[in-house]
Amino acid sequence: MSGRSACRRNSALILATVKRFRHFTRFRSRLLFYIIGLLLLVLAGVFVVVNHIFRQNTEETIHHELVVTERVFLRLLSERSQDLSQQATALASDYAFKRVIATQDHDTITSALINLSARAQADAAFLVALDNTVQIDTLRPEQAGQAFFSPALLEQAEREGVASRLMLVGRKPYQVIVVPILAPEPIAWLCLGFLVDNPVLAQLKQLTQVEISLLSEHGQTLQVHATTLPAPTPQQLPLYPVQSDGFFWHTGQERYLSRLVTLEQQADGKLVALIERPWSKALENFYRLQWLLLVIALFSIGLASLAAAWLAKSVSKPVQILAQGVQAIGQGDYRHQVQIDSTDEIGQLGLAFNSMGTQLLEKEKIRTLLGKVVSPVVAQELLNHELVLGGETREITALFTDLAGFTNISEQLSPQDLVALLNGYLTEMSAAISAHAGVLDKFIGDAIVAFWGAPVTDTAHAQQAVACALAMQRILQDLRKDWQRRGLPLLYMRVGINTGLAVVGNIGSIDRLDYTMIGDTVNLAARLEGANKYYGSGILISEFTYQHVSGLFACRELDKVRVQGKQQPVAVYEVIAEHKQLSVRQRQLCSGFAEALAAFRGQQFQQAQGMFGVLVEQHQDAASALYLRRIEELVSDGGRVGFDGVYDLAK
């Protein structure tokens, strides 16, 4: 009996368990469970990923800001050194002080030196004889008669006229300035020392918004001399690598991210600055965002749970199928067909839905074909292949044109006359592009964008582009004659050409796309078009295009430029004419300009100036006039140090 009772109890327990979880076998319950579970996983993953990425980016930003702060700190020290050097130079020129030195009276000179240092607010003053012996030392009078503590500083002052260095004097950091006392030849050295203490660092902190400590390296420790950190501050730190990207150290309860910057290397050690930023303060924004993400996640979970419960309660399988179909149609998938195995109203609705999708697909095909205006070669390529989004990397030659001063011309004409003039110009230029097997990409106002080498492969794409540019200039010259007879404004065109790798293909969206090009090659071509105005040229090409066309077209190298965001300079050339059509005058201009450019790059500026001057006088050459202005700037600035003949190409 007891066995039967136990069996009945077990059976009842199983039935109760099945009844309890019977509702979970329903589609609505499973759907609700899966949606909420998936949402929790997604939100948790997003939270973890975003939290990790933002923390990583925050730490990288803080490290970068510390590097930038280091540069600002060094620049501020340099500016302070220049200001103090100017003050010292002015004091060394004091006539009364020179007369006192001439008296050779030690007490009188000492008094005058103390007064002079007080005027400069210096903390120490030294008068050093030309044989490097200290005559007067206001900081350590007993050092008088001994050798000056920094002969290298005197040698620098003798070479450069003034010397400044941050160094330890009597185991304290000073900004030491040395200038000669001239009468008119040097008769002595004036040396002023400005103590770098906590108030000085406090001023630098106001400008940099970071904590700064000044330390000296002795052996394996760093000795603190001045700091903006709150007391108590450790007086010694372990020796860290000076060139490290940053390290952490603690003062009391605060953790700092720090960088060591070497300020001065001396025989008995180094003088370094410790630039520090509180880590907790730097991460304040991160912690605020972390809480915000958590609140948003909890709110999203609650809102999505309510929506999932309502959806699971109200939906049914046929309606789900239709909803998926509607969603597919809404996303542009008009080939989507629903499968509903029923003959009732839901089945009829499914048939009507499939018919609607077929009709929309046909209309979409017509709309797509009518909505695209492309070059004939591109249209043929698109019709022969299935239309898909995407691109491929090809070597192409890009061409950009623009009209000089078109804004001013547009203000002189009525809208109707302006459109007629522009349409005539664009028609002729488009015909020239087509005649040279080019792809007309787009019109941007009066500007034209075209390219060669895609979609049909053409190994002579660079030659075709340059030949087209020359043809366009010739056509425009003929148009100007007609416009002049009709009393219309005359248009002048600038052309930029570049050859290289670019992404070409159908770029845009499912609803609207262009067969176009993107990449650095395209950007440089656009830059070259605008640079024509700077050089006074009509057609500019890059060195990459020149490598392809130098055998067919006469070109002259105008410059070497550095494009924004790139380190490698690029040579730019002006296209003159085909070799067989080059005139004697043009040949003389090219050879003369090449010789003058070589002299300029060889820093033979006087010789280059004469050669460029002849070219301006004989040929009215705008590029030569530009180099004359450059030579004047270089000579007036006296700046040949670091000269490499490369100039930045503006946007």
Give me some keywords for this one.
19 helices, Alpha-Beta Plaits, Beta-Lactamase, 52% helix
Share of residues in strands? 15-25%
Distance between the termini: 98 Å
What's the architecture of the largest domain in CATH terms? 2-Layer Sandwich
Number of domains: 4
CATH topology of the largest domain: Alpha-Beta Plaits
Number of continuous helical runs = 19
Radius of gyration from the CA trace? 40 Å
Shape: flat
Poorly predicted runs of 5 or more residues: 369-374
Subcellular location: Cell envelope
GO molecular function, one term: adenylate cyclase activity
Domain HAMP: 313-365
Pfam families: dCache_3 (PF14827), Guanylate_cyc (PF00211), HAMP (PF00672)
How would you summarize this macromolecular structure in one to three sentences?
With 651 residues, the chain is of the alpha+beta class. The chain contains 19 helices and 20 strands.
3D structure, described in words:
- This protein has 651 residues and is of the alpha+beta class.
- The chain has four domains: 93-196, 2-Layer Sandwich (Beta-Lactamase); 199-282, no CATH class; 376-582, Nucleotide cyclase, GGDEF domain (Alpha-Beta Plaits, 2-Layer Sandwich), CATH 3.30.70; 583-651, no CATH class.
- 52% of the residues lie in helices and 24% in strands.
- Strands 12, 13, 14, 15, 16, 17, 18, 19 and 20 form a nine-stranded mixed sheet that branches.
- A hairpin with a 6-residue loop joins strand 18 and strand 19.
- The longest helix is centred in the N-terminal third of the chain and has 66 residues, at 27-92.
- Residues 369-374 have low confidence and may be disordered.
